[in-house]
Write a structure and sequence with these properties.
Keywords: Hydrolase
Radius of gyration: 14 Å
GO molecular function: N-acetylmuramoyl-L-alanine amidase activity
Shape: globular
Number of strands: 0
Oligomer: single chain
Number of helices: 4
Largest sheet: none
Helix content: 40-55%
Pfam family, one: Amidase_3
Organism: Candidatus Pullilachnospira gallistercoris
Order of helices and strands: HHHH
Distance between the termini: 16 Å
Protein name: N-acetylmuramoyl-L-alanine amidase
Length: about 70
């Protein structure tokens, strides 16, 4: 939620995927963060904007802090 609060983007929830060979055999927990889609013109513009990049980073950091109760 912190990422969505920081960026104003919609929370599309969490999805599982067991077809990604790069992470299937990992012996440690793996998380993939998708910030947007480069095929979506709006997402692509946002991801190129330094101010939006900062909001994305801050939202991720805030979410990690929230998870650990910091």
């Amino acid at each position: 939620n912190a990422y969505c609060n920081a960026t104003g983007l919609k929370n599309r929830g969490v999805s599982g995927n067991d077809t990604m060979s790069g992470i299937n055999w990992s012996s440690v927990p793996v998380t993939i963060l998708e910030m947007g889609s480069m095929t979506n013109p709006s997402d692509d513009r946002n991801m190129q904007d330094p101010a939006f990049q900062q909001r994305m980073v801050q939202g991720i950091a805030d979410g990690i802090d929230d998870y650990f109760g910091l």
